[in-house]
Amino acid sequence: MPNLPKTLCALATLVLGGLGLPPAGALVIDDFRSGVATAPGLTQRAVGKRVAGDSALAGVLGGGRRLGVAAARLRIAAHDAVSSGVVPEAGRLNYASTEGADGRVELNYDANGRGLNTNWRAERGLAVEVADADAAAVPYTVTLVLADGEGRSTSATQTVTRAGPHRIEFRLSNLRSLDLGRIRSLTIVVDPGEAGDLQLKGIQTLAGGATSP
Asked: Are 203 and 128 spatial neighbours (Cβ–Cβ below 8 Å)?
């Protein structure tokens, strides 16, 4: 007779993974399934940055999301641009750039200035799920910036060198200067290569408690 508990557990893992749901115990930061000002998003046609914000969103930690899209270089000012926006029906955040455009996308979560005031001592880390990235996007960097209730902040950056889906994990045990019991805000910055296109499908914590590196 098959081991039913193990069989059911494996089946549940398969089903939840197919639905794109986070693992049990994970805290959803953003599932990109809601948005108003951040959907369809922003287009930046000059060097600089544009920002839009949403509040009272389901599936977003603290209810608020600020989306920024920045252009660092545009080869042809009248033609090149970078854009980013949430596609709720697909559960995706899209970033796109024209052939001569180099930019980045920024996501900030701080409960619309009130502060998240969340306790992450039981969390092992944070994961950024990339649904897809084209060849032009690589290499790209993903930076996590965390701030606590005492006003201290720290950051960590990872570089991804291959196209396609990818999961970037940040270990909270490496961010020793913060009070993980009072996380006030977090920011994710994704900086693809020139002319790169990229999609995110979710941001979530890694449950299990901080461990030594």
From this structure: yes
Q: Are strands 92-97 and 140-148 parallel, antiparallel or unpaired?
A: unpaired
Query: Does the CA dihedral 185-191-197-198 come out positive or negative?
Result: negative
- Token pair, residue 51, equals 């920002």
**CA nearest neighbour of 95 among 30, 42, 50, 147:** 42
Q: Rounded distance, CA 61 to CA 179, Å?
A: 18
Tell me which residue of 195, 6, 2 sits closest to 82, measured CA to CA: 195
Q: Which of 4-8, 121-125, 127-131, 175-179 has the lowest mean pLDDT?
A: 4-8
Q: Which DSSP state fits 173?
A: G
Q: Two tokens at 172? A: 């909270």
Q: Calculate what percentage of the chain has a pLDDT beyond 90.
A: 81
| Residue 200 region by backbone torsions, left for phi larger than 0, else alpha for psi between -120 and 50, else beta | beta
E strand intervals along the chain: 28-30, 42-44, 48-54, 65-74, 82-87, 92-97, 101-109, 123-133, 140-148, 153-160, 166-171, 183-191, 198-207
Residues 107, 53: Cα–Cα separation, whole Å? 10
Residue type, 166: H
Q: Residue 13: pLDDT above 70?
A: no
CA gap 98, 21 in Å, rounded: 32
- Give 118's DSSP letter: B
| Residue 192, phi then psi, degrees to nearest 5 | -75, 170
Tokens of 25: 């115990």
